[in-house]
Amino acid sequence: MTEELFRDDATLLACDAVVTAHEEGGVTLDRTVSYPLGGGQAGDTGWLIAGSQRWRVTDTRKSKLTPGAILHCVEGELPAVGTAVRVEIDAARRQAHRRFHTATHLLCALLPYPVDGCSITETYARLDFHTDEPFDKDAIQSGLARLVAEAHPVRHRWISEEELDANPGLVRSMSVQPPRGLGRVRVLEIEGVDLQPCGGTHVSNTAEIGAVVVTKIEKKSAKTRRVVLGFAQPSEA
Questions:
Q1: Where in the chain is the domain with CATH 2.40.30.130?
Q2: 183: Cβ–Cβ under 8 A, 6 or more apart, which residues?
């Protein structure tokens, strides 16, 4: 298994690790700061470094061969198993993911409907809500701005699977369920605003989200409404 340093500290941008195995297109490591694609959030990119050698990490994903291992997709010849490497992630990409991911939790607080789709990237975030109710773009925009400005602390903690079973309303997503079998579940709390299971990377205070805008609201089906977020341009901030 890969020790997931990003779970407890999303601000970490680098760590030392050892290559544990090869898989098609990449390597697994004993520990990492790189978040793997999952829960709607894109994987981290960056570098593996060993002395004068550098390997570009083009994506990070969960291993298909080894449960609990994280695959770092790299370009060129793979570093040998046992190689000690420095893992460095793209800081700007990580920060964008953190800001957008926390912003989507604010959307969940503003729009109390089940979520049946999610995508968090470096340039936009979207949530699909299971409802036929119309959405007011201006009301959502003002609600986001208010929650960001109120500077709510954001923190994660772990609860038991039994606690989650006793509070099924915590799970907002219809498409992504919290992982089972470990005995505990990571939950993300925005103080006074939102609490739900989440394994992604987040900012530590809603003020860090900064200026985000609702770029689009779409009716995707009779029972699906999509909200797309982007970062505000200087003229919009």
A1: 3-89
A2: 160, 161
CATH 3.30.980.10-classified regions of the chain: 94-231
Instruction: Write out pLDDT tens, residues 47-84.
Output: 999 999 999 999 999 999 999 999 999 988 999 999 99
Instruction: Specify whether the CB–CB gap between 47 and 2 falls below 8 A.
Output: no
How many alpha carbons lie under 13 Å from residue 41 in its C-beta half-sphere?
27
- Torsion region of 45: left, alpha or beta (phi above 0 gives left; psi -120 to 50 gives alpha): beta
73 vs 30: CA distance, rounded Å: 15
For 90-231, where are the E strands, in sequence order?
115-120, 125-130, 154-160, 184-190, 194-197, 212-221, 224-231
The counts of H helices and E strands in the chain are 3, 15
- Under a CB-based contact definition with an 8 Å cutoff, are residues 193 and 106 in contact? yes
Task: Say how many C-beta atoms besides its own lie within 10 A of residue 207's C-beta.
Answer: 15
Alpha helices in 135-200 (DSSP H): 137-149, 161-166
pTM, two decimal places: 0.91
Alpha-carbon gap, residue 34 to 235, rounded angstroms: 33
**CATH number attached to the domain at 94-231:** 3.30.980.10
pLDDT at position 184, please?
A: 82
- Mean pLDDT in the chain? 92
Q: What residues contact residue 48 under an 8 Å CB cut-off, 6+ apart?
A: 27, 54, 55, 57, 72, 74, 79, 85, 86, 87, 88
